Amino acid sequence: MAWSNYVDDEVARLAAPPFIEDQGERTCPACGRRTVRQYLYRSLQRQRPSLIGYAWCRSCQRFAGSTGPMPAGLTFDDPLDGLTTDERVAIERDLDHFFRRLDKLWDQGVLPQTVSSQRL
Prior knowledge:
Blueprint: E1 4-5, H1 8-14, E2 36-43, E3 50-57, E4 62-69, E5 74-76, H2 85-93, H3 95-107, E6 115-117
């Protein structure tokens, strides 16, 4: 089974409540199983730091990705922080490998990430 994108209304349902408030697994709007996970990382490739996020369902292989400005006061740990930009790009090209790697980190208890927001 190949990975496919969530459709717009599914993405909207995934966003409530925001993952920043609850990093645990949540119910998939496509298949109904509680197997949706999330991963965030900082990108420094642009002029301003960006926040890249992925949400994926390990059951039905649907996913959503997003990119936006790094919110002020947002902090989180990143178990893949040591990757170079080229290594990260290579991993993300193969979604099956990428999400399997992230699932392994979840199964090992490394993910979900610890996320906090301190509004300035």
